[in-house]
Structures are given as structure tokens and as C-alpha cells.
Design a protein that fits this description.
Blueprint: E1 6-8, E2 48-50, E3 61-71, E4 82-89, E5 95-100, E6 105-113, E7 119-124, E8 127-136, E9 145-148, E10 158-164, E11 167-172, H1 183-190, E12 195-201, E13 206-209, E14 213-216, E15 221-222, E16 225-230, E17 237-239, E18 248-250, H2 273-285, E19 306-314, E20 319-325, E21 328-331, E22 350-356, E23 366-373, E24 378-388, E25 395-401, E26 405-407, E27 414-415
Parallel strand pairs: 9-16
Antiparallel strand pairs: 1-8, 2-7, 3-6, 3-8, 4-5, 4-7, 9-18, 10-11, 11-12, 12-13, 13-14, 15-16, 16-17, 19-22, 19-24, 20-21, 20-23, 23-27, 24-25, 24-26
Amino acid sequence: MTAGTRRVRSRPLAYGAFWLGISVAAFGCGDAGSPTDGAGGSGGAAPATLEVPAGTEIGDELVVMVRASQVGGAWDDAAQPGAVVSFVAGANVPRDVILVGGFAAEQRASLGPWDGGAVTWKLAGEATLDAVELSVDPLAAGLPVIALASSEYASDTPLVAFRQGDELEYVMTNEDGGTGLLPTLLVARWGRPHDIEGLFDVVKQTYQGPNHETVAFDGVYEGSHPRLRIATDNGLVDPEPADAEATYRVSPMPVPFDDGPTVPRERVLDDYPWLVAAGWLEVAREGKVDPHGGVDDSTLGALSAYVFVDYSLTGGATASFEVEVDGEWYSSLGIYTAPSTLLDAHASGTGRTAIELPEGRTLTDVAAVRLIPAEGAGSLVTARLLAYDPESYQPVFGGETTAAVDVDPAIGAVELEGL
């Protein structure tokens, strides 16, 4: 173990279970000192205090960075899914940093405006924490605080945020409602079991509420920070009452991500293996995966069975993608072949889709990739083939084409060069 690093083990929680896709009681709960204070062991009876940076003034935006080189457990293990580092800054509502078991990670979270009070933290679960550090960052102003406030709607966990224009997009571990009711459709349509939602517009001060309605925020602020809570089983939100109780509240600092007009927002996953893992391990924990299933059933296969296509289509064209393996072609549509219906998995615009391969076959077995036009005419501006290593969850790239391809049902299938 390197200097300045210590392993913290913690005692079981004394209160009952609450579902974050797992039981909170499974995390355990312990109190720990700063990773550099030399306290060691499982910590004392009180949370540790962080030093506020010199020169910090009342109202300055506090941000915490947590760097973990190792986290105990695994996200698909309901008994030990990972760890949580909880923070309290003065009289602000607590914030939590949720760490996915089995992975190193560095995460930054807003703690709200400083009111002059102490900033304390404690660890629930087991993790090797290399750093827990405070800073002042004006970019944290206005970030929502999202409460996971009821067992009914707490299983899909927002772990990462990024900014798209004025809107904050959140990446959640899964989507239990909406398209997520059909996991294979979710993966065919979006190329991920995760849910990515635009939840809050920081300029217009609007949020995406139930039924995907855009609503003006009229709830409680903490300084400039709107307080929201997960309100539906597909991860949409509404205002959190001032006196509401929540087991967890998250306020992740947006990660750097420049999607651009031809880059799907799913690429934000590629920089964070622990985030990729959380989505796939959660659907496995929820019984939505059959690692020995077929390509034509309604159950997800293992991550190792999938290849993914990032695409950008213009002109209103819709299409599907197919890969050739052992002389057979396998489609991104899966069992969802009917265009222009609620169960339509055809690709359009800019996005990512997934293709399940026969058991035992992987990206290295793909001999060719082709596009099948469906409705409308336009162009395929770019396409990229990739998969994920099922052990490290790092992306593995299979090729990319940036030469525009005409997409027209009258032309028919087009084999894509470079993939």
C-alpha cells in the first residue's frame, strides 16, 4: 500500500434496508478519518472533518474529490455492491458519492455553498481511498441535488452527469420503467442498459418531470442548487420537499464530454469502465440477463455477446445494422423488426445500437458490417464498431468509417468499409 493510502473497513449499519438497486444495509457503515491523517483501522465514533481551503468565503461553492484505488464488493452482488462516501457541509443537506464495487474511480461532487460550518465525511462499505479533498469551484453553482428518497424508485442510480448545451444530462445505472420494461429493446434502441436523461436546464431552470414533460422548477433551493428527487421508475424527477427524508442524495460534478453533432452521447460511457460495469451488472442482478440465451429471444445476453455501432444518420433516414459471423448475418433490430411502431428499434439521427452475437462469438469473429435502409433517404455520415472487454469493461474498437454513405431503401443494403 502506497504512502498516504489506507484501507477502511466498516461496521454493519444498524438501521433497516433501503433499495438502491441493492440493500443499503449491505454497505455496512463506518466512520473514518482523512486518508492522510494516519488514523487507520475502521475509524472512530464520529465522522472525520475535512479542512476547508484557506481563503474560502461564506457562499463559496464547495466541491469534494474522492479517489478510490480499490472498492470492495461488486455491483451485481446484493450483499456487497460497493461503497458510499457521505458528506455533510455545515447545515447543507448531505451528499453522497457512490462507488461501484470492484473498480478504481475518481469522482467529484458538489457539496453546496459553504455556510461557515464544518465539513465532515464517513465511509459505508470497504474501499481504499487515496484522496478525499475539498476545493472551491464556481462551476458547481446551480447543480441539482437529486434525492433517492423512496424504496420504490431508488434502484436506478444517477452516477455521472455531463452538460449538453444548457441542459444537464444524467447517466443512470439502468431504466426499470419506460423502454427498460423491455431490456432487449432498450439495448437495441440505445446500445446500453443505462438510462441517459436530460433532467435539468440550468438557464431556463426547468426539469424533465414525469411523462417527460418539461416543467418550470418551483421547489426548494439550497443556495443556487435546486433539490430534486427521483419520482418515477424510469428515472424522471420532481421537486424534493424541504423536510423530505432521503437515504442518499447525489450531486455529481459534470464530467468533460464534447458530443458534437455526429458523436452519440453514449460515448460518455467509454471513459468510465466502472459506469459501463454498473449498468451491465445491475441488469444481471435484476435477472434480466441470460448468458446462454439466443439472439432471437427477449432476454439480454452477457456483455461479451454484444458488439455496438455508433452512427450518425442525416436527412430523416432510418436504418438497421447487421454484422456477419460464420457466414450468417445478425441484426441490431433483434426481435423488434416493425418500423414506425412503439417497438421500433431502427436507428435514426445520432446514436448507438447493439447487436447480439451467437454464444461464444465476439468482435473478433465479425467478418463484415452492413447497413439496411428502412424508411426515408439520407446519408450515413459516420459509423464506428466497438465492443467492451467483459473483464475490464474498457472499450475495444473494431474500426470506423467517416466516408458518407447514401441511405435509401431503393438502393438497399450497403456494406460498410473500414468496420
